[in-house]
């Protein structure tokens, strides 16, 4: 039987892949058959993740760099193509948040969030597009957020970066479609990771998330990762420019 979701023989690069959603995506892509190049800033943490994959019989390697360093992204894409001959899937996932009221929001902090959450996505997509154009195909997956469609107070840079990431996805899709490259965004809702630990630790906030979400619970990172596998697979071959909400219905709940 044809397996439209298998990624056998594919090579993927995932930014911010050492923990949380990025790690879970990395593991899911590897479980579907891909070799996954995992990015993060901590080489030791990445090596441990690569060993975890190997222990499961899955293929991966590490690429340690800060996504704020353009040269790091350029080099990682070049080295991946040198080693494997191709790059099929690029996942722009690394992200940060900065929570502070607008009137106290320093320009440098706004810029820092944009650098990681949006500029690095643009740079990764541009660099990944070069080999993908030569290959006449590829998948670019952007991890945006429902907090690019709706907003909460105190996270102006995050909301702007995520709205920008979804818009960037459309720009990539219309420009790269003729090369057989699809570009889609995943927009997770409240997901249990380190990024939201501060919210999870607050009983009031946790209750609010659960009561406000139609599915009445937080997302598990695996529920985001499975969508990345789908978008990377042949099963999603005619989907491009789309932002797929994985939010338990949060964003459409009036
Ligand atoms: P996390 O904080 O657990 O993981 C973020 C990852 O990005 C970490 O591996 C971190 O080391 C890496 N990273 C951060 N700055 C980096 C840099 N300069 N260079 C390289 N790597 C860097 O957060 P989580 O939740 O796994 O977030 C992953 C993505 O999902 C982010 O883009 C986030 O905005 C997005 N997201 C998360 C949601 C949630 O509720 N957790 C909801 C919607 C979107």
Any overview of this molecule?
This protein has 254 residues and is an alpha/beta fold. The protein has one domain (11-193, 222-246): NAD(P)-binding Rossmann-like Domain (Rossmann fold, 3-Layer(aba) Sandwich). It is built from 8 helices and 7 strands, in the order E-H-E-H-E-H-E-H-E-H-E-H-H-H-E. It has helices at 20-31, 43-55, 70-84, 107-135, 156-176, 197-200, 203-212, 221-232, and strands at residues 11-14, 35-40, 60-64, 89-92, 138-143, 181-188, 243-246. A 7-stranded parallel sheet has the order 3-2-1-4-5-6-7, with helices on both faces. Helix 5 links the parallel strand 5 and strand 6 (181-188). Helix 3 runs parallel beside helix 4 (107-135) and helix 4 runs parallel beside helix 5 (156-176). It is globular. Residues 15-16, 18-22, 39-41, 66-68, 93-96, 116, 143, 145, 188, 190-191, 193-196 line the site of 1,4-dihydronicotinamide adenine dinucleotide (NAI). 1,4-dihydronicotinamide adenine dinucleotide is lined by residues 15-16, 18-22, 39-41, 66-68, 93-96, 116, 143, 145, 188, 190-191, 193-196.
In total, the number of domains comes to 1
For the biggest sheet, the summary is: 7 strands, parallel
Bound molecules: 1,4-dihydronicotinamide adenine dinucleotide
Helix content: 40-55%
CATH superfamily: NAD(P)-binding Rossmann-like Domain
Residue fraction in strands: 5-15%
Output the helix-strand order: EHEHEHEHEHEHHHE
Distance between the termini: 43 Å
Q: Which runs of at least 5 residues are low in confidence (pLDDT < 50)? A: none
Please, what is the oligomeric state?
Answer: single chain
Q: Within the CATH hierarchy, at the fold level, what is the topology?
A: Rossmann fold
Averaged pLDDT: 97
If strands are numbered along the chain, what order do they take across the biggest sheet? 3-2-1-4-5-6-7
The tally of helices reads 8
Give me the Rg, rounded: 17 Å
């Amino acid at each position: 039987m044809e397996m439209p979701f298998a990624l056998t023989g594919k090579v993927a690069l995932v930014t911010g892949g050492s923990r949380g959603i990025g790690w879970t995506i990395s593991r899911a892509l590897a479980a579907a058959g891909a070799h996954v190049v995992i990015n993060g800033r901590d080489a030791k943490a990445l090596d441990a993740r690569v060993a975890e994959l190997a222990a499961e019989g899955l293929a991966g390697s590490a690429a340690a760099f800060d996504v704020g360093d353009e040269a790091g992204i350029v080099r990682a894409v070049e080295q991946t193509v040198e080693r494997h001959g191709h790059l099929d899937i690029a996942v722009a996932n690394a992200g940060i948040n900065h929570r502070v009221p607008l009137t106290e929001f320093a320009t440098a902090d706004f810029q820092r969030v944009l650098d990681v959450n949006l500029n690095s996505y643009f740079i990764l997509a541009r660099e990944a597009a070069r080999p993908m154009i030569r290959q006449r195909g590829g998948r670019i997956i952007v991890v945006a957020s429902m907090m690019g469609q709706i907003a909460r107070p105190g996270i102006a840079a995050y909301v702007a970066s995520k709205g920008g990431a979804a818009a960037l996805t459309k720009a990539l899709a219309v420009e790269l479609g003729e090369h057989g490259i699809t570009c889609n965004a995943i927009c997770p809702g409240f997901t249990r990771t380190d990024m939201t630990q501060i919210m999870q630790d607050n009983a009031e906030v946790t209750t609010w998330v659960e009561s406000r979400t139609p599915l009445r619970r937080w997302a598990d990172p695996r529920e985001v990762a499975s969508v990345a596998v789908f978008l990377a697979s042949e099963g999603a071959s005619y989907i491009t420019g789309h932002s797929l909400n994985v939010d338990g219905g949060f964003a459409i709940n009036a």
